[in-house]
């Protein structure tokens, strides 16, 4: 019987323990990770942040919190190629460099502990933050305010000039959505780094968290192909074919399944 993952226990508390869940995901990739140590570290960081915040109402402290993190040397990891350490939460706390999502997870936990209202926004390619009711968004990497024009420019940079800003890009992301996004990030980063067993852990978590879709099954099928597991690859390709609504995609999936059927069996 498969053990219930620790991150799922944290996700299902009321309210969800998002930071602890993200640490538990990191622990799946680093068996030496001591979650209690990093929970103490975030509490220590909260004290450092609080000491530098102005005397303002909580609703006005989100941007100062992010700027204070900048002062404490938390910045976006701009190293290329981006490595998994930019998404693994304990490595981000250790290095003070991370992806926008990882920096946002730290900011959200600090805001929770300091009772500062702050929400995540599931903006494509670059997670953003929002103070409920505000007319702007906040960049978790810098604290910069982003208005509609800024969001259009950011969308063009991360998604291409063909994308039009719409309401779906500005939706609030709950804990479930953030863990799904984190899992997809890690899957991509581990796969690009050639760490296919690690990517497989992330792909399986994505399939648990996301509604059934062809794309996620194809991602896991590609990982199984890299790991030379044709039976498992076939399973995911068959599921992808059932879920696909694109005729060209369905043709490609059928062709790959035909190749697998013709391959000699291993004994």
UniProtKB/TrEMBL annotation:
It comes from the Bacteria. Belongs to the UPF0162 family. This is Tetratricopeptide repeat protein. It comes from Aquipseudomonas ullengensis. Pfam families: Transglut_core2. Residues 37-183 form the Protein SirB1 N-terminal domain.
